[in-house]
Each structure stands twice: as structure tokens, then as C-alpha cells.
Amino acid sequence: MSRAREFATQGNNAALVLNSSAASTDVGENLLLEGTDSSSTDAGYHLLQEKYGTHVPYDQLEPGNRPQLNKDTIWFRTWFGVTGGTQSISHATVTTCAYDAVHWDHNGNANMAADPNKFTCTVPGIYWFKLSNYLTFTGHASVHQYSYAYINRNGRDFINQYHSHGYGGGSGYTMHNTGTQTTEGTGILSVGDYVEPKVYYYKHADAAPVITTYALQDGFWGMLLKRLDNF
Predict the structure, then answer these.
(1) Which InterPro entries match (predicted)?
(2) How many other CB atoms are found less than 10 A from the CB of residue 128?
(3) Distance separating alpha carbons of residues 24 and 112, to the nearest angstrom
(4) Which residues is 222 bridged to in the sheet?
(5) Can you tell me whether residue 130 is helix, strand or coil?
(6) Cβ atoms of residues 104 and 221 within 8 Å
(7) How far apart are CA 105 and CA 91, in angstroms?
(8) Buried/exposed code over 182-215 (b: 16+ C-beta within 10 A; e: otherwise)
(9) What is the model's pTM?
């Protein structure tokens, strides 16, 4: 059996053999290994190649048993980056949030710089998302208000919060709906799925509600919790 064949079969080899040099005078000579004891009595003794045995390639492991790859670390937050930045929402219209800055995006894995208001899945799995805005909403003396927050997947309902309230008081009173509105939850995404933050506000008195990212917990958030096989 040739030395090349012995080496290819991952055997216990007595030595490595040179097959070329500038002068071609050492072809076929042994390449000695450095000794491991004080007297180097084992110099050039052997080279042992380890076989894989029963080891399984990464892509053949069960999804729950795979180590986390760098690209699997998806963790982002977008928001109104300008201090005091706000967005006026058209009355009775489902509106995509217009966040203009990426607060963070680990290693750029979520590619939120391309569009701070749209996450497109490149790693399938279980995700957590959150949408939080500070809302300023004022009505007149008799008003019924609807305040909806959506985290939509592929243009349809995914993670949502709906609430409404009304007031039928007399003249001289004004309805206010001011504060933080938050919705969050988990769900499964496949490669190519996209998620967008949206809001909807309605009241009888037609006037534009205003949202802003008032606190560090506001904005559009996302995190990959567990990678799964694509489906």
C-alpha cells in the first residue's frame, strides 16, 4: 500500500514522506516529527490521525442539539432616533410605524439598517417581538376611542393588542388617552417571512394621534429564541 493511501485512510503512520523540493534531491525522504520527551528518543516515530467515528455533522443534528452559530444571534431594537422624534398617525388608518434609527442590531444579523420598520427572517425559528409607543390622544366631551397595536407577519395579524373605551360626559369635559401602549409575544418564522410594526387609532373627534418612543423600552424589538429547521 502506498504512503498516500495509508495517509488517506487515516491510519497510524510511521512518517510523512516528502514528494518535492526546490532541488528535487529529497523526494521520498521522511519528514521527522519533533520528539515529545527530553531526549527526543521518539523523534520521527509516528503520526496518528483521529477518525471522526460516530460524530455527526452540524446540519444532521436535531435542531435542539445544535450549538448556537454567530448568525443565530438575532437581537435588535429600532426607534425614533432623534430626541423627541414623533409620528402623527392618520385617523382610522392602519399605519406602519416610521422608526428612523437602529438602536442596536447584533452584528447586523437582522439587517435592520435596510428598513428599521421591517424584519425579514433569514434564520428559521421561534422569535420574540415587542412593539411599544408612547401615545398622545385627545378627544372631545363625548368620544369613543379605539387604540390598536399590531406586529404583523407577512401582512397579516400575528401579535396584536386591541382596546377601546368611551365616555359620554357633558360639555366642558375632554377625553385623554395618553401613555405607553405595548404588545409583545412569540411566534415561529420561516425563511422569507417578514414582520412589521403597525398601529391604528380611531375616535369620533377626527384628529391625529401622535406616537413617540419616550423611554428606552419603547420601539420595535426582536430576538431569535430558538433556531428550528425551515418549514
Answers:
(1) Tumour_necrosis_fac-like_dom (IPR008983)
(2) 15
(3) 57
(4) 76, 129
(5) strand
(6) no
(7) 32
(8) ebeeeeebeeebebbbbbbbebeeeeebbbbbbe
(9) 0.70
For residue 160, what are the β-bridge partners?
A: 150
Domains of the chain, earliest start first? 1-55 (no CATH), 70-227 (2.60.120.40)
- Give residue 191's pLDDT: 96
156-215, pLDDT tens digit by residue? 999 999 888 766 666 666 666 778 889 999 999 999 999 999 999 887 665 678 888 887
Which candidate, 144, 147, 223, places its Cα nearest to that of 180? 147
Contact 148, 161 (CB under 8 A): yes
* Cell 515529545 found at: 36
> pLDDT of 106-138, one tens digit each?
999 999 999 999 999 999 999 999 999 998 876
